[in-house]
Amino acid sequence: MCFVFAAVPAAPVNVSVTQLRAHSAMVTWNVPQGDTVIGYSISQQRQDGLMQRSIREVNTSSRWCVLWDLDEDTHYSVQVQSVGLHGDSQPSRSVHFRTLERTDHYPAGILDHHEPAMEGLGMTPHLQTGELLIITTVLLLWAAVIALFCRQYDIIKDNDSNGTKEKGKRPLVRATASYYNASAGSSPLYNGAVRSGRLHRASSSISIIRV
């Protein structure tokens, strides 16, 4: 009878703690080449034994993790395990570190641009830039909407004014037409004046002929 044991990944190597702050720190590590790793497990413990915490994450290829809610000026130890398809690896060597005091000065250039960005760990300028971009984009969109609304309003207003002018012109045209119609034969005064003028002219010509 043969027993086949599924291989578990080897323990992580090169475990280190960087980005030390008063209440946070970053843990980084490497995985031996050839191991199938789907996650990690971190054991965090205070040196005085008052607190112990475990962090486990799967379906990730991350090789770093941020430890939050640490106590300032406190000694901690941390170990990392790789999570494989058939089980967890042995714990890595224990790494000891001490958090800073809130009054400690952070070393200049402690942030490496090649390391993952961490919210709240010296990344305030980047966050402010992102927020400003979002606010600027929203304001531009609102300005475009307002400009489009004003343009449509002006078009509708112009159409209404043109329609009002056309309606105002139509009675004048009809009145003029009726005036001309009346002048053609419906107005008795005008017709009488015209007829009397014609008659007067006719009588004058007749008078001249008689003379």
UniProtKB/TrEMBL annotation:
<protein>
    <submittedName>
        <fullName>Fibronectin type III domain containing 4b</fullName>
    </submittedName>
</protein>
<feature type="transmembrane region" description="Helical">
    <location>
        <begin position="132"/>
        <end position="150"/>
    </location>
</feature>
<dbReference type="InterPro" id="IPR013783">
    <property type="entry name" value="Ig-like_fold"/>
</dbReference>
<keyword id="KW-0325">Glycoprotein</keyword>
<dbReference type="InterPro" id="IPR036116">
    <property type="entry name" value="FN3_sf"/>
</dbReference>
<feature type="domain" description="Fibronectin type-III">
    <location>
        <begin position="11"/>
        <end position="102"/>
    </location>
</feature>
<keyword id="KW-0472">Membrane</keyword>
<dbReference type="InterPro" id="IPR003961">
    <property type="entry name" value="FN3_dom"/>
</dbReference>
<dbReference type="GO" id="GO:0005886">
    <property type="term" value="C:plasma membrane"/>
</dbReference>
<dbReference type="InterPro" id="IPR052120">
    <property type="entry name" value="FNDC_type_III_4/5"/>
</dbReference>
<keyword id="KW-0964">Secreted</keyword>
<keyword id="KW-0812">Transmembrane</keyword>
<dbReference type="GO" id="GO:0005576">
    <property type="term" value="C:extracellular region"/>
</dbReference>
<dbReference type="Pfam" id="PF00041">
    <property type="entry name" value="fn3"/>
</dbReference>
<keyword id="KW-1133">Transmembrane helix</keyword>
